[in-house]
Amino acid sequence: MEAVATMQPIDLLLGQGSAEELASMRLRVGAEPHLAIEVAETVALLEQLRQCRVEPSALYAAKLADVVRRAERRLQPVPTTTWRTWVIAAAAAGIAFAVLAWTDPLSLRGPRISEIVRSTTPAPVVEPSIDEALVVQSEVARTPAEIEVLESLQAMRQRFELESASRLTAALDKALQPAVDPLGNWIRPRNTLALLRLDHELRARDDVRRRAMLVEAGGVLADVRVQELADSIADELRATLPGRSPVELGDVAFAVRALIAAGAAAPRRAKALEVGGDWLAARLPGSRGATLATALAALIEVAAVTGSHVELVTEAGQRLVDEVLQADAETWGRRRPDLLTAHVPAATIGDAGRMLAVLPGLGIAAERCTIVRQLLLGQLRERTDLVDGPEVFAAIVFGFGDLLAEPEHAELVRQLRRWKPALLAPDFATVHQIAWGLEPGRIGFTRLQRELRQLTVLQAPERLFDRAALCMSLATNYAAHRDVSLLRFASGD
Amino acid sequence: MKLPLQPEGDVDFLARYREGDPQAFRQLVELYRDRMVQFFYRLCWDRDRAEDLAQDLFLKLMLGSKRYRPEGKMATFVYRVATNLWIDHYRQARPRPKFHSFDQVVLPNSGRDTPLDFAGKDTPPAQHMADGEERAAMRHALESLTEPHRIVFELAVYQERPYGEISELLGIPVGTVKSRMHNAVAALKQMLGAAERAESEGQKRVGGA
Q1: CATH of segment(s) B125-208
Q2: Average model confidence (pLDDT) for chain A?
Q3: Angle at A453 between CA A261 and CA A272, to 5 degrees
Q4: Contact, B53 vs B44, CB < 8 A?
Q5: Mean pLDDT in residue range B5-11
Q6: How far does B205 lie from chain A, in Å, by closest CA?
Q7: Top-tier CATH class for B13-93
Q8: I need a labelling partner for A479 at 20 to 30 A (CA). Which of A51, A258, A340, B132 fits?
Q9: 3-state SS, residue B77
């Protein structure tokens, strides 16, 4: 039992008690030195503890402004309608329905295109499609998986409604549109993974790398620098891992990606790649959210070029997708999944977007990956409403370029031209995403290559992460563009 | 229109909102926005979650304004909704080893009898540096209090609510509020005092080396 307490210094300081009790306590403090010391200690404690506060984020103000708007809307009087208005509206609706039923402009009475495709094409993915789950209305019995999908989508929509996250609502709507090319959505990532392996083998050849550099307005000196940086990264990975030195997961993930970008076929680098890959793989089971995405972005490349850790990466990839798409009381019920919160760096979201684009190549349902990618893209678009920084634009173009409509893509590339790589240093992570996000043939590509060449003279950054990002930025011409194989540069054999 | 006034002179914005004043809810939000995010933050130590909870609170106030009767203080009503929201959230977030005996002031393994580790074993060093060691120690100390003691301490010290009101909010006798408050203060003094002693001893050792 908690004993009923008499008055103590904290009560006096907080003014808790009747006027008589407080006066009597003051007298006691004046008379008893040990009590006066206790009061002084309590004052110090309160002063100290009152410093414990947090600075709200910019999003908080926006969220509250939305609540206020909703509160004010609730007070607006609902316009009254007469019976005549109702009759006219009902008549208009009846006429419109009759005309549509007669003409059937969307051919709703004919077989659905998606059904025709399904009947003639072997379905690559056995999971129920989101589209099907949405179409199911009442007469078809729903499987538990379909019910779960519907419940999750409902929870997402409720959260977006609560937060007035119109960008994310639009992203979800876009993601749920029927896939234009369901088979292609599965085959393309498999091809990308195969090309990653082929290109990685070709990158071991000096002549291929240098031809790629020359053709794409790069410079041979840049390749020399890339190889120097990759050697130092390989040495550091082998010296540090798997020892006890404290290493950040992000540093190792970037280092591994830089090795693959530079070409890791030589024994010295292959060993470093193996050590780095094993180190990351060991951390996959305990990782989630942004950390999991960072590790997977590197490990999916390791899996593609070396064939190792494939099962682990598939399992973790599935888990990452589920983390975003599965709703429970906490995730979506109370807050967004970790990966969609504002504290995840834009560059990490960009990396996640690029990784999720090839994840279906390992057998994970492409439509689920697309929903996650669209939501991540929506999250970045939300940020563009608040910040005008290159990291957000770069992350969108790098991680989600294939999802953008051409006018938006061109506008983002135009925006990115405002920032020069040499001036962005030492933020090489952003430079890397700008460089890899801008494809050959786009306006500003050649100029960007010229500007990237200026980075070859910079000193090697001390931190592994920055060094790896610089290495990748300079390796753009032969490592960045996944849809264009290096085979074209090897054809002179 | 005569403004509904509270006994302590505060305007009852919820009553005004219910009566149709469109500006009243905005003023209510302005009045409580910072207090509430700090309230939830010191209970969950997660800024995003605190902001979500504060947003939920204002939504609940908006939706519940029709049922609101300006019989007591508006502040009491706001804190009651906030406290219930936290308790609901806390229950949903279980299982976590937080609720223990109501007599227990400090969570087990919180290091009450041993000096606090300034460079904790579990927290990344970068976070410690960012928070500042003193802040980290304060946070550790506050986190170490059990939930019943922490919420009483939060309401009394940070939100400056009278013991009588806290007793009403939490549904416990005033004597229990007092004893929880006194025990919480004693535990915090002990933990932070031990931390300071450890720090000064460490400095002496470094100086003497």
Answers
A1: 1.10.10.10
A2: 81
A3: 25
A4: yes
A5: 51
A6: 25
A7: mainly alpha
A8: A340
A9: helix
Instruction: Give the one of B29, B93, B178 whose C-beta lies nearest to A67's C-beta.
Output: B29
Q: Give me A81's structure tokens.
A: 């309608």
Nearest to A378 by CA among A174, A180, A159: A174
Cα–Cα separations (whole angstroms), residue B178 to B112, B151, B167, B174, B208: 21, 12, 9, 6, 44
DSSP 3-state assignment of A134?
Answer: helix
B106: phi then psi, degrees, rounded to nearest 5? -120, 140
Could you give the ipTM of this predicted complex? 0.74
With a CB cutoff of 8 Å and minimum separation 6, the contacts of B75 are B6, B10, B161, B165
Q: Round to whole Å and give the CA distance between A130 and A9.
A: 63
Q: Is A90 on the interface with B (CB under 8 A)?
A: no
Residue A337 pairs in a beta bridge with: none
A114, β-bridge pairs: none
Distance from CA of A404 to the nearest CA of B (A): 29
Distance, first Cα to last Cα, chain B: 74
For residue A16, the distance in angstroms to the closest alpha carbon of chain B comes to: 6
Residue type, A271: K
A330 CB near a chain B CB, below 8 Å?
A: yes
Question: Which residue of chain B has the CA closest to A13?
Answer: B157
Given A49, A59, A64, which is nearest B33 (Cβ)? A64
| Token couple for A243 | 């020892």
CA angle A454, A456, A457 (to 5 degrees): 85
Task: Return the number of other C-beta atoms located less than 10 Å from residue A23's C-beta.
Answer: 11
Q: Which residues of A touch B173 (CB under 8 A)?
A: 4
SS3 state at A335: strand
DSSP secondary structure letters along A209-266: HHHHHHHTT--HHHHHHHHHHHHHHHHHHHHHTTSSS---HHHHHHHHHHHHHH---S
How far apart, in whole angstroms, are the C-alpha atoms of residue A423 and residue A431?
10
Q: Decide: residue A51, CB within 10 A, 0-12 exposed, 13-18 middle, 19+ buried.
A: exposed
Cβ distance A49 to B142 less than 8 Å, yes or no, reads yes
Q: How far is CA B99 from CA A197, A402, B124, B140, in A?
A: 53, 50, 26, 17
Q: Write the pLDDT tens digit of every residue in A218-274.
A: 677 888 889 999 999 999 888 888 765 667 899 999 999 999 998 887 888 889 999
Same CATH topology for B13-93 and B125-208? no
The residue ranges of every structural domain in chain B are: 13-93, 125-208
Per-residue pLDDT of chain A (493 residues; tens, 9 = 90+): 444 458 889 999 999 888 888 888 888 888 888 888 888 888 888 888 887 888 888 788 888 888 888 888 877 665 555 566 677 777 777 777 777 666 655 555 544 433 433 443 344 444 444 444 443 333 444 566 667 777 888 889 888 888 778 888 899 988 888 766 667 777 888 888 888 888 888 888 888 888 887 776 667 788 888 999 999 999 988 888 876 566 789 999 999 999 999 888 788 888 999 999 999 999 999 899 999 999 999 999 999 989 899 999 999 999 999 999 988 888 888 888 989 988 899 999 999 999 999 999 888 988 889 999 999 999 999 888 777 788 999 999 999 999 999 889 999 998 888 888 888 888 899 999 999 998 888 888 888 888 888 888 888 888 899 999 999 998 888 888 776 777 777 765 4
Of residues B138, B175, B181, nearest to A49 (C-beta): B138
Q: What is the pLDDT of residues A200-212, one digit of tens each?
A: 888 888 888 888 8
Pick the residue from chain A with its C-alpha nearest to B190: A45
Q: Which residue has the tokens 């960009």?
A: A350
**DSSP H or E segment with residue A282:** helix A267-283
Of A46, A63, A341, the CB nearest to B157: A46
Residue A152 one-letter amino acid? S
Q: Which residue type occupies A123? A: A
